[in-house]
Amino acid sequence: MVTAGMLPRAAVREVEARLRAAGCPDADFDAAELFRLAVGGDARLADAPLGAEQAERLEALTARRATREPLQYLCGSWPFLDFELAVGPGVLCPRADTEVVAEAAANTLTGIAAPRVLDLCAGTGCLGLGIKRFCPAAQVTCVEKSPAAFAYLEKNARCALTGQGSQTENVLEPSALEQADAPAFDWGPALNALRANQKPAYAVQPVQGDLFTYWETLPEGQLELIVSNPPYLTAAEMEQLQPEVAQEPAMALEAGEDGLVFYRALAQHYKNALCPGGALVLEIGWQQRKAVTALLAENGWAEIRCIQDFGGNDRCVTARRPK
């Protein structure tokens, strides 16, 4: 147990031992992060004994992490690319593998002055915001169905990219979101009215909507990019989740018996929303390359290819609407 008067390194060793006993992966990293949250700073550089309040905070965080509550939820924010995202119960934690998807998506926009981008199943908004970070002139709309996740998306759309250097420090200004020479795009009556009557407050535009029906609201041929990290776990995989993942929302993970229901909808219904040559970029499970590329081919998509993540696993499929 962490108690007042413990030296910082001894406290971290105590936390690490308890997390390791609880089966937490990366217990040493987690212990250091919990110390930073509870006490502030790096335990390796501190020598003052813990005060009573510090010890109480660290003990409480350790107890929660030992129940396998995700570290990201305890922290309340988590890095993605070079910015921080608000995260907590009710939203999928951003992962490093998804950075590969964001980069691949941004690469499809090379040479396009003011691309129009749609991020479906946006969650925290990590993909849409990542694209905006790479391509500040992009007009990005992030669609999320879950009310719980949407609260994080809305906050991140307002806050995540503020102060991120000269490229994006002015992303909330109309000149960045509403390029004067960009083609007008019909997002639907409600959002059009909002955008017409209110100065943009977001780096990306959050919209509450459902991937399975949102395509019905989109005009043909006006997007340069659609990106999505949809739920993709099979029913069998949902029964074998790591304890931390089991505490993330099932709505953001489960995709039917074969894990493909969202990819079917994307392949069948979203091609016409893209301009000719427009790109679709999808995160996939590491065993889904053949199934997802086959779905895209069956539905007339062109230039289908797969990109691997940092661990060498298939992680991203890209395709284009034929020109």
Written overview of the protein:
There is one protein chain. This protein is of the alpha/beta class. The chain has helices at residues 8-21, 27-38, 52-66, 71-75, 96-107, 126-134, 147-159, 174-177, 189-197, 211-214, 235-238, 243-246, 261-269, 289-298, and strands at 77-80, 83-86, 116-120, 139-144, 205-208, 223-228, 274-283, 302-308, 314-320. A seven-stranded mixed sheet has the order 5-4-3-6-7-9-8, sandwiched between helices. α1 (8-21) packs parallel to α3 (52-66) and α2 runs antiparallel to α3 (52-66). Residues 165-183 have low confidence and may be disordered.
Mean pLDDT: 90
Q: Low-confidence stretches at least 5 residues in length (pLDDT < 50)?
A: 165-183
Radius of gyration: 21 Å
Using DSSP, what is the number of strands? Answer: 9
Strand order of the largest sheet: 5-4-3-6-7-9-8
Rough shape?
elongated
Q: How far apart lie the N and C ends?
A: 64 Å
Give me the secondary-structure category.
Answer: alpha/beta
Count the DSSP helices: 14
Q: What about the largest sheet? A: 7 strands, mixed
Listing every helix as H and every strand as E from the N terminus to the C terminus, the arrangement reads HHHHEEHEHEHHHEHEHHHEHEE
Question: Helical amount among residues, as a percent range?
Answer: 25-40%
Provide the β-strand percentage band: 15-25%
Present the secondary structure layout.
Blueprint: H1 8-21, H2 27-38, H3 52-66, H4 71-75, E1 77-80, E2 83-86, H5 96-107, E3 116-120, H6 126-134, E4 139-144, H7 147-159, H8 174-177, H9 189-197, E5 205-208, H10 211-214, E6 223-228, H11 235-238, H12 243-246, H13 261-269, E7 274-283, H14 289-298, E8 302-308, E9 314-320
Parallel strand pairs: 3-4, 3-6, 4-5, 6-7
Antiparallel strand pairs: 1-2, 7-9, 8-9
Helix pairs in contact: 1-2, 1-3, 2-3, 5-6
